[in-house]
Amino acid sequence: MTAARAVLERTRSSIARGRAEDLRLARTMFVAALVAAPSFAGADTPRDAPTEIEVDRADAPAGRTELGFDGGAPVDGWGVTLSGGWLEGPVVFGLPDGTTSEPVRRRETAMFGGALALGESVVVDGRWSFAHQIGDRLRGTGDERALDERVPGDLRFGVRLRVMARTGGGVFVRGDLALPTGDHGDFAGDAGASLAWRLIGRANLPHRIVFAASAGLRLRGQEILVADRLVGNEALVAAGIAIPLPPLRPLWCVDQVKLTVDASAAIGDKVGAGRGPSPAEVRFGVVTQPRPAWTFGVRVGTGITDEIGSPALRATIEVTYRGDWKLLAISRDSVDGDSDE
To answer: What is the mean pLDDT of the chain?
Structure first.
C-alpha cells in the first residue's frame, strides 16, 4: 500500500510539473504578444490604398476539422490540414456613374497548415494559402491595372492555451499573428502585420452535442482607407454548434458524422468620421471521420451583411490527418473525455 501511494504521489507531482511548464510556455508567448501590442494599437496614419486588404475572412485553424473558427476542438499530438475554398463576391464597389464594380469576383484558394500540441494545455498552429482569382480590381476608378490572377496569402500563426478544463467543457485563450506575406496590391493580404486575441468557451451538451463561442479583438499594424471605410482594428465574435447524427450502420457509426452550423462577425472600429467594415457570415457543414486519423469537412455559407469581406457565397472542403506522436507527455484528463491538447 505504501509503495502504491508513493507511485501515485510521484505521478501527481509529474503531472503538476508538466502543467506548470505548459503555463510558463504559454505565459511567455502571450507576454511577448502583449509587449508588441502597443506598436499595433498606435498604427501609422491610414493609407489610401484600397487594394492593400485581405477580403477573404476564412478563419478556421489548421490541424483539426470542425467549425469555421477555433472552437476549442482537441488536438492530441499533431495534425495537418489541406483545404480548398471557393469564394464569390467578397467585395463590391459603387462607381461614380451609378454602376458597380467587383474588384474580386471569384477566388479559388488552396490552404495548407498544421497544429502541434505542446503538453496538455497548449496548441500551436500555422497556415498559408495560395489562390487564383478574377475580378475588376480598380477599373473604373482611374487605376486600370489588371488584377493579379495568382496570389499568395498572408502567413498566419496561432497559439491556444487551455485555462480551465471540466467534464462539461473548457475555457481557452487564443492569440494570432498574421504576417504580410500576401499580395496586398490585389486584395490578397493586409498591408501590415496584425495581432488578435480571443477568449473561447466550449460546452459538451447531452447527446454528444458541442457548442462553442469566442470573442476577441484584432489590432492591425496599418490602417487602410477604402472609400468611406477604414479597415483597421476590430472586435471579433463567433459561435457554432456540432450535432452528431445517430449511427446508420453500415454507413457510419456513433460520432462519425456531424452536422455543423456556425456564424462569425467582425465589428469595425469607429475612428472620427470613419468606420470599419463589419462583415458577418453564416456557414452550414458536415464533418465525417471515417477512420480515427482522418477527418473530412464540407462547409457552405454566405454573408449576412453588405460589407467588405462578407461574401455572396463561400464553399470549403478540407481534410485533416492527425497523428498520435507527442512532443511532450499528455495527460488523459481532457475537456472532451479524450486528450485535449
So the answer is: 83
In a domain, 299, yes or no: yes
Range with the poorest average pLDDT among 77-81, 119-123, 319-323: 119-123
Residue 329 has pLDDT above 50, yes or no: yes
The answer as to whether 330 is a domain residue is no
Over 90: is that where the pLDDT of 285 sits? Answer: yes
Strand partners, 213: 201, 239
Q: Which domain holds residue 75?
A: 2-323
* pLDDT(254) > 80: no
Position 335 in a domain? no
- Please tell me whether the overall predicted TM-score, pTM, comes out greater than 0.85 for this model: no
Distance between CA atoms of residues 308 and 310, nearest Å: 6
Q: Assign residue 44 the CATH number of its domain.
A: 2.40.160.40
> Which residues, listed in sequence order, are joined to residue 234 by a DSSP beta bridge?
218, 268
What order of strands is seen across the sheet that includes strand 224-226?
224-226, 229-231, 274-275, 270-271
Q: Which of 169, 173, 237 is nearest to 34 (CA)?
A: 173
Cβ contacts of 11 within 8 Å, gap of 6 or more: none
The count of domains in the chain is 1
The answer to whether residues 177 and 145 touch, using CB atoms and an 8 Å cutoff, is no
Q: What is the DSSP string of 2-37?
A: HHHHHHHHHHHHHHHHHHHHHHHHHHHHHHHHHHHH
Q: Is the pLDDT of residue 41 over 80?
A: no
Phi-psi region of 98 (alpha: psi -120 to 50; beta: other; left: phi over 0): left
In a domain, 182, yes or no: yes
